[in-house]
Amino acid sequence: SKLLGSSSNGIFSMSMEFAKAVPMATGGIILAWQEIAFSRETSGNNKELNKDYFSQSITTFFLIYAAFFMVFIPLMQLIIPYYLSEAFQPVGKILALCTAGFTYDCISQMIASIFGNDIDSTPIMVSTIIGSAFLIITIPTFIRLYQITGASLCVSISFLLTLLIRIVWLGVGKQYKINYLKISLSILVAAAFGYYSTIGSYTTNIILTIVGLAIGLPIIIKLKKNVNEN
After folding, report:
1. What does pTM read for this prediction?
2. Terminal-residue alpha carbon distance, the chain
3. Which of 83, 108, 110, 179 could form a disulfide with 163 if both were Cys (CB 3.0 to 4.6 A apart)?
4. How would you class 67 by CB atoms within 10 Å of its CB: exposed for 0-12, middle for 13-18, buried for 19 or more?
């Protein structure tokens, strides 16, 4: 965007490159999930049984991505000062927002598989159009108000808006049993990690990385065990 200028555009692009670690690290999970979703829809399982399975899976997505986020963000804040030159140090200030955007998009893709296998593309199309329209209409204002942080925030909100529409559509429109409390808590805890990691010192990020590992690894191990049992 010419509203940001070449320097800020470079910083924004670099931050997005780091944030791409989320889809790169979880691409296999997304592909595997699409296969699982398709196989359950075509296996002749009871529809209510499938709804329960998919509802639990959505909560699992959020917990796994939150656990990844809680480790990745403070860890990257420790690496960036040694990896990037002085001109690109501001990458750390917007990394959490950019990563959050990619995280929301990954979960959206996984939820889209549920709609796709239900042969209902309307929620996917509507949510994508609304999220994209929000981004196009509001990003100039966000940039004018908050510069590069505003651009990152706007992108993150647009992906979150798309995701929330899909979740509510499943919960309200298709009567899936969505655990809104766990989803909200996972977002809030991850957001807190992102915020304090961004404003915190080097020592703070060491502590946050350790705490993130202490919280995140047991969650992932437990969820993996539950998936294997199912």
Report:
1. 0.88
2. 47
3. 108
4. buried
